Amino acid sequence: MASLIDTVYIELSKPTIIFGIKLWILITICIGLFIFLILCCIITCCCRKSSKKHKVGSYSKNPNLEKIVTVPSNQSLVPPNQSLVPDQVQIDVNKTEHRLSVTSNRHASNRHSSARSYRINRSTSDIELDSIAPLEISPMAWVRWFTLRELNDATDIFSNDNVIGEGQYGIVYRGVLPDGTWLAVKWLFNSRGQAENEFKAEVEALGHIRHKNLVTLLGYCLEGSSRMLVYEYVDNGNLNQWLHKDVMQVSPLTWDMRLDILIGIAKG
Ligand SMILES: Nc1ncnc2c1ncn2[C@@H]1O[C@H](COP(=O)(O)OP(=O)(O)OP(=O)(O)O)[C@@H](O)[C@H]1O
Fold first, then answer.
1. Which of 13, 96, 222, 262 has its CB surrounded by the most CB atoms within 10 Å?
2. From the annotation, which residues make up the binding site for ATP?
3. What's in the keyword line of the UniProt record (predicted)?
4. What is the ipTM of this complex?
């Protein structure tokens, strides 16, 4: 045993052909370099991850926004031309990727019809559309496609101060466009099929009609997994407040007025 140790010691102490460095020193340097390289790889990976997280964090006050901004910019769903008004929007849901197709006959720069297709990778977009049939929205006469950026700017990145209400399907934010137009932006909850159905029903129905008793749908936003409906802002409080005396001590609504409201709603 002792002789074996002696032999190993002698072998390790022999100078090598590399600058005559002893073998044990050379082995130590190699092991050190190996560990150093592994550490470098780990640090590089961590830095990349944290810089991605930083981009998301600085963009979103609202945690829901994380889902949107994690879609890489080269796969952006925003049509490069923001004034493009789509005649048809279709999302094809596939096991590995989703494809959003936008077809438009009205294009800001030319009068020809155009079709665009945006691809999203499942792994990066985190879209939860598995159980949803392809969404098709038929041509809309009035409604406009808002980008998420426009709505972020309008609502101060969906700040809590701008929350004006919450319904069954989403939270409603007050917003204002650069031209001074006030908006009510309903951000639909991402509850899979339900939000999708509400989105489609509202766009299909309100996108085609104008009535003095119905709030006007100005447009919608369809980006990543977000579904938003953009209405004209009506600063009248809501029916609940009027019926349950939130506006005054006693509800100012007489039975005749209530009947009128009911008939008005029915007409709408
Ligand atoms: N266009 C708007 N202008 C001003 N406030 C609005 C507008 N739309 C909605 N709100 C406010 O947001 C609240 C929630 O609206 P939302 O449409 O989500 O739900 P709802 O109509 O109250 O009920 P439901 O969920 O059954 O549709 C309303 O009660 C109202 O206070």
1. 222
2. 186
3. ATP-binding, Kinase, Membrane, Nucleotide-binding, Phosphoprotein, Transferase, Transmembrane, Transmembrane helix
4. 0.96
